[in-house]
Amino acid sequence: MVQCFSLEQFPPQERDGKTKIGILGFESDEGVRRNQGRVGAKQAPDEIRKFFAQIPVPNTPLSLFDLGNIACEKDRLEAAQHELGKTIQHLLQRDVFPLILGGGHETAYGHYLGVRSFLGDAPTIGIINIDAHFDLREGKKPSSGTMFRQILEEDGKVDYFVLGIQRFGNTEKLFQTAEKYNCKYLLEEEVDHFDVTFEKIQQFANRHDYVFLTLCFDAIDSSYAPGVSAPSPFGLHPKTVRKLLRMIARLPNLLSFDISEVNPVTDESGKTAKLASLLIADFIHNRST
């Protein structure tokens, strides 16, 4: 059963041995609009919930809460990202694992703000991003393509690891930017060498006090995920993504997870949103067992 709460009603911290997961939507595609992508991702949180509600829940020691959505009003992206960060901080302070439903991938910056506010200045953070793109662009305004550059420029105790990079989906300048910031990455065709990939993920996690995970749905093959802001016919197979999520879900220092760039406006009969809901359900099961 999913329990629904407003943030003001949310129960105080309790330690009863159950895994606690808080679902939080971020209704925003302003960052996608600024990045000249296909808008519509702001409709994703409730569309994903619609399919998620139909999935049987295994009998696991789990408390699952739904905190509703934070909406980006008009072009006020920065304010919405800070509100998202405050809410994620609130959940972490109550020993609840935040599971954030974006929204455009600008969701990840608000996600980071919440994690850093919770941890304070001292701990190191590793960001694991399953994505076709680096999202290390320069820009006059923050967008869905700039947020990891923002984070790396603002925070010297953050490192960045991307899984699924498309060789022809990023400019040479972006590869050079990734080198400049000492980013780790695996190309799309390298990811399914799982022994090597899992070892690299584990090593990356071990080098940091905490990690958080973000999944950009345009990393997935567009025949399975047509409803995204930037579809790719050479993306990762859903079963590959599921294997990655199962492994990462069990990392003891994983704090939180967001899923972004599902776009119901461009979807085909809910195919992408349904896939997102199944990956979320599988992640929750592996996190709680």
Short description:
The protein is an alpha/beta fold.
SS field, number of helical segments: 10
Structural class: alpha/beta
Radius of gyration: 17 Å
CATH-scheme architecture = 3-Layer(aba) Sandwich
N-end to C-end Cα span = 17 Å
Give the amount of beta strand, in percent.
15-25%
Walkthrough of the structure:
With 289 residues, the protein is of the alpha/beta class. It has a single domain, classed as Arginase, Chain A. Helix content is 37%, strand content 21%. It has 10 helices and 9 strands. Strand 5, helix 5 (147-154) and strand 6 (158-165) form a beta-alpha-beta unit.
Write the layout of secondary structure elements.
Blueprint: E1 2-4, E2 19-27, H1 30-34, H2 44-52, E3 62-71, H3 77-93, E4 97-102, H4 107-119, E5 125-130, H5 147-154, E6 158-165, H6 172-180, E7 184-187, H7 188-191, H8 194-206, E8 210-216, H9 238-249, E9 254-260, H10 271-288
Parallel strand pairs: 1-3, 2-3, 2-4, 4-9, 5-6, 5-8, 6-7, 8-9
Helix pairs in contact: 2-10, 3-4, 9-10
